[in-house]
Amino acid sequence: MTIRARLSGSTQEDLDKGRAFFEHYRHAWCRDAYSSREGTLMDVQGRQAHLRLRSGLEFTCQVMDLVILGPPPPIPHRRVGYTGVEDATKRPAGLLVELWAVDNGTLATVRPPNGPAWFAMLSDLERVDCLLGPVADWTDPPFPIEARR
Predict the structure, then answer these.
(1) pTM of the model
(2) Pairing of strands 38-45, 66-70
(3) Which phi-psi region, left, alpha or beta, contains residue 129 (left: φ > 0; alpha: ψ -120 to 50)?
């Protein structure tokens, strides 16, 4: 394994961008491209991301080394799409507005921009508008590529 230089501090702009990135990708399934370890995104402080392995251990990596493998779980007031077995065209993507506890899980109410609200189990929903793949390859990454060096 090669050793690479690490940035020791973060500017206020880095902290703000990191906070915004974390709010959008909280609990997404990620891989650290540098170490190849995978985990859940638990926090971002500036340019550093904190991931939790399935074993419960946490580790730190650079945000620009993240590969987003799976979208974060659906949460209220975020756009979601239907991924269940029924016809998805009858359920256009919309805003998750309510959650209800039921015997078999959680029932969600989704309100699309045009048309009536619809219901689905939370397990049949997936966040939309979340880019997947290597963060460094995005056209508008949270931090400039040159800043990593």
Answers:
(1) 0.80
(2) unpaired
(3) left
Whether the CB-CB separation of 136 and 149 falls below 8 Å is answered with no
> What are the CA-CA distances from residue 18 to residues 28, 125, 136 (Å)?
14, 26, 14
Confidence band, pLDDT 50/70/90 cuts, at residue 149: very low
Which value, to the nearest 10 degrees, does the dihedral of the CA atoms of residues 74, 82, 33, 53 take?
A: 50
HSE, side-chain direction, 13 A CA sphere, residue 143: 29
For Cα atoms 35, 41, 83, give the angle at the middle one, nearest 5 degrees.
Answer: 115
Residue type present at position 105: G
Does the CA dihedral 80-145-31-21 come out positive or negative?
negative
Read off the pLDDT of residues 104-113 as tens digits, 9 standing for 90 and up: 899 999 999 9
Cα(10)–Cα(83) distance, rounded to whole angstroms? 39
Could you tell me if 119 and 100 are in contact, meaning their C-beta atoms sit under 8 angstroms apart?
Answer: no
**Rg for the chain, CA atoms, rounded:** 18
C-alpha span between 101 and 107 (Å, rounded): 6
Residues 112 and 81: their CA atoms lie apart, in Å, by 10
